[in-house]
Amino acid sequence: MYIMTEPKHWQGRIDSTTNPSSFRLHQKITRVPINDVQPSEQLLAGIVGFICDEGVERNQGRIGAAHAPNALREALSSLPWTFEEEQQVIDVGNIVCLNHALEAAQQELGEVVTTLLTKQTKCIVLGGGHETLYGHYLGVRAALPKDATIGIVNIDAHFDLRSYDKQPSSGTMFRQILEQDPYAHYFVLGIQRYGNTKELFEKADELQVQYVLAENITAEAMQALQHFMDQHDYILLTLCTDVLNAAFAPGVSATSPFGLDPTTVRTIIRQVASHPKAHSFDICEVNPLLDVNGQTVKLGAYFIYEALNQLVKK
Q1: Is 160 flagged in the annotation as binding?
Q2: What is the pTM of this model?
Q3: What is its biological role (predicted)?
Q4: 242 is in an annotated binding site
């Protein structure tokens, strides 16, 4: 189901109502129904939420990520507007997964993503469980020529290459994509040795996944990432917040005691989102119901804004 975002989710501090250099995001964000979006040189990006954790539940995780899209908007609201006065970022609303109909919701999310990309604007997707990524991918694929290559960059502690024979979940998306789309390829950074079975490492090798363990994110790894991106027509960036050390991100379904620090994640986001072939970003697995003092939500909002700034300033 598609719904518009309520105004209450874009409220915050006001320093000035007349001086644009003092404006904050909630003063500049415009809510626009997806069917009313018009291409414009001043339109920088569209934000869409995916209110869903059906995939997490199917994957036997801790639910609550469905609360993240609106919580992230509220955390974004008071951040300072970093763009020109005449430029615009829009919020096109939310896709809501109802009655456990994950596949239908993913398809609907894909349609919104396709619409934004074909309007020549960047796209920011607020998940939701990491099943959000599959809807994001469907939208990117539909917006591109059939033989265009997609380089999927995932910042994640887990491969998400489980079997989907019984049903898709938040642990199956990349296997679904790689087995169905010969023009899609997968690079993941932050993999945890203790967060993935030996079978999943073997499946990653079988599907020719390029991966970097959390303890091996070096300059050489970042060079390999750059080479991967340069080889593709389109770069899709997805962040699963369970990649972060649990001390920084307690509000996720599956915490990572040996996870990455926020500075490392920020560095990866900057490198990927600033690539000229990167046009969309999603953030997943923020779980406000499990958070402590809103710190994971706030960190997620900062990552979103970092990605947005890099995507549009190219």
Answers
A1: yes
A2: 0.97
A3: Catalyzes the conversion of N-formimidoyl-L-glutamate to L-glutamate and formamide.
A4: yes
